Amino acid sequence: MDTEDSKILSQAPNCPMEKEQKDEGYFDKTQTLKDAGMIEFSVPCHRPSSSEQRKEEEPHELLVPDLCSLPLTPPTAVDCNFTCYFAPDFMKPDHDQYVYRHPNGLCVIGLASTHVALKGNRVKTVDFNVGKSNRSEIKVSGKRKRNAQRFEPNTALCKVSTSNGDTSYIVRCCVKGSLLEVNERLIKQADLLNSSADREGYIAIIMPTPTDWIKAKNQLLSLEEFKKLRGLC
Length: 233
Fold this sequence. Notes:
Helix content is 23%, strand content 29%. It has helices spanning 3-11, 50-63, 77-81, 185-188, 192-196, 210-217, 223-230; strands spanning 26-33, 39-46, 83-87, 97-101, 107-111, 123-127, 129-130, 133-134, 149-151, 156-162, 168-172, 177-182, 204-207, 221-222.
């Protein structure tokens, strides 16, 4: 820096920003400009009041959950989108089946993990050719669900065979309603019942009427009731 510039700076009046801010809610923060001859000045910085801090913390508490309150494992798609019901000992002992009801009224039917066919057994085949028709050949189309057949709760959906002495088990509808589809993947991938019976290994989808559902619901157990019955708590 030139000598003349130094004299000008030394004779310049004090910068008003150097004055200490006395107003409440402000404090001095010194910043150094190295390339301006080490001239120091104060910059007022706003200190948020307690009420402003609370306003900022409230949205944070709503958007960011408390880590201590989170479950050890995240909820599954079934937990988020379905209400789980169970039909224990349906028609026969240890023939436990589940009914997952969606808010739109659809019911997903399948084998509960406590079903006798899944206890230490490997599922070998799933055959939908039961009763008077092959359930896998029923094709439903359109909004009116044309060709959908109405079945009773005890109507057979398929026959599950295991590798344990070629034992077979009949899987039933559990609820009265129209059969919309069966899980045809099980025909070629029967082992889905062992790996994910409550997801990819479901058996069928049924649409009961509101009246039929009320009757069926009274015969089913909630998830908590079923866990208590089977000692899964």
